[in-house]
Fold this sequence. Notes:
It contains seven helices and six strands, in the order αβαβαββββαααα. It is an alpha+beta fold and 179 residues long.
Amino acid sequence: MSANDDLPWIARTLALIREADAHGIPVIGHCLGGQLIAKAFGGEITRNPVPEIGWGEVTVIDGPPARDWLGESRAFPVFHWHGETFSIPPGASRILASEHCANQAFVRGPNLAMQCHVEMTPDMIRQWANEGAAQIRAHPGASVQTPERMCEDLDRRTEELRRIADRLYARWIRGLDAA
């Protein structure tokens, strides 16, 4: 699925994102949700140079917005599953990048859009790896991991991911308090 698909709910979703923003209500999105936020604010959704599937490190783009959302973090592993990406819309600040995808996350006021997945659980990763096996086989390369590699050391990896998610979500919730 793509934010560029001609589906009736996409236009309504884009309008809802803009309406929430106009009323000071923060929005958050992961992957397709991040792409919808980018598109709603004037960004473009395009093919990523390569599919990005599995665990990969993101780098924090130093600057006040990233420090506000991520403190002194410099890099950390996240989970990926995408073939498209977003451009950074006007008025937004990029806060995360990866080796295979320049725009991993941006903030625009209280809004947070992520290409990567910080919400994953061990069960979700196992399910995606199982259900996406054909897609994985179709895209061999450095940016796509095998299901076995994705599922290695899941408890530790997802616990680290949860700490990052907690930090991002806690910061996003501050925007709800101000709304």
